[in-house]
Amino acid sequence: MQPELLCALIPLFPLIGFLINGIGFRHVPKGVAGAIATIAVLASFLTSAFLFGAFIGNEHQTGSTAPLVATLFDWISVGDLHINFSFQIDQLSLIMLLVVTGVGSLIHLYSIGYMSHDSGFGKFMAFLNLFVFFMLLLVMGSNYVIMFIGWEGVGLCSYLLIGFWNTNTSYNNAARKAFVMNRIGDLGFLLGIFMLINTFGTVEYVDIFKQATSLEIGDSTVFLITILLFVGAMGKSAQIPLYTWLPDAMAGPTPVSALIHAATMVTAGIYMVVRSNVLYTLSPLTLEIIGGIAIATALLAASIGLLQNDIKKVLAYSTVSQLGYMFLGLSATAYTAGMFHVITHAFFKALLFLGAGSVIHAMSDEQDIRKMGGLRKALPVTFITFLIGTIAISGLPPFAGFFSKDEILAHVFEHNKVLWALGVLGSGLTSFYMFRLLFLTFFGKFRGTEEQRHHLHESPATMTAPLVFLAILSAVGGILNLPGSGWLGDFMAPLFEGSRQVNPEAFAESTVEHSTEYILMAVSAGVALLALILAYVMYISRGAVPAPETDERSLPEKVIYNKYYIDELYDNIIVEPIRGLGDALYSFGEGLVDGLVNGVAWLVRQSSSQLRLLQNGSIGFYVFAMVLSIAAIFALRFFIRF
Known about the structure:
By secondary structure, the protein is mainly alpha-helical. It contains 26 helices and two strands.
């Protein structure tokens, strides 16, 4: 089969699913709608897997690691600028294709059980398919313009999915907040694309990166381009200061949270930086800025997660923190380690969100962990899989999160010892709040109502099967890039040839001795283990339960519990002044425009009321007026002539 056809089929399958369910969502039965949507994404996964196998086979046969560019059609031609609608298949796009379609198909399957009672089921599945379609465009495009189409598309779909239950005003506000904050970042991304066109005369990855290798490190134009592109990544991947939309996005149904916050939309910024690795390697100052923002984001979000009581909000702040870790790895030019954490994070974060959805489903839509407890007996599959996900994200061996997080911290240790220490601190905070969540939800006594206790039951197979698959991947995913014999590192190596060429030192062999590496691994795992023990002592041995909303809190606890009042700060210094300015302009415009319109109407009305008196029916007056007019015309002609 031709590669061009395979490339076209991958995004085409979910697009067809969207069209069928989107057009006929009022008429297609729920069972059929769920099957169509899930099979569409599964077909994309199988096609991606086939393409992956063909790429690996071709690599072994020919020894070529060059990317395959499949041009579907000529798209835009303006002067010397030519933009094709084409896809690029290489190591990075293949990895993202497998993650997006693989995890996405499991989330679609889970949605069949979770959303089965919702009246808008068909529309929901259509939106999920459309989201996957745009995400596939984002990762498959061979140039920045197609990436931008997918970039904007997933932003639109996130708006539709977050505000899916649109009868609730707060959910609509959350969707609008996500849309607006992403648009702020997207403006930076768009300006970066314009600068790429102005600098390189093209938007094609291959052409840009080839030209970039001839530039010097620290080039001011490249610095500006990379900063602008990173502004886009700050919006999509929720970094300071554009992160506050992501926790609010929990307003959407739980499968949406898993899809947006695990494998797809929030990793778009990471993908963009790794794709543009040559440009970022040429700009060490940009990488330093990214590192500072990343560690600040990781620690800020982790500290907020310590005191959150909404099961999905804890996971949301965890996502923000983990994205900070990914960018921290990229700032140390550990591009492979960053992508490795993207993959493992997709496994265990999707698992945790879907596990949280299973808990919410059993608890009759209750999300407050203070009203849970003792659920491990009623929900055994959910408990075991959630436990595996918690161990994985906490960075405890031998599960997937340990290997990916350890690899990032090892690279950061070589790059900057202070960032490494702060990264280890963040790892400990992650372990504490995740085990706090686990213990309060599944251990101790049940703290809900009798009606909820009576309703407790394990989720149906359509929901637990994805949990089991993701739990297995979260447990064994670390084998993708084991220390010293990493398959992922070898597979992705050709992506960074340009970066090695412009800055060989950044990709030199590690100077850290093996004994030091083992110590670093032990420190990271030890801190996570100590945090686990502390959480166990507080919430199991002592049986502590977070205080109700009405209780008084100490000042530090109050600040953290209220998320450092950052949302309130944004409201006071940005939202309210802009709203006030808008109201003032509206009032001014209303007074000016209404006054002008009403004034013209008054003038016409008054003039017409006087002029109509001339029409009095007197023939003598009409003859007089006609003679007077003729005399005036002759006089006017006479003066004009002389």
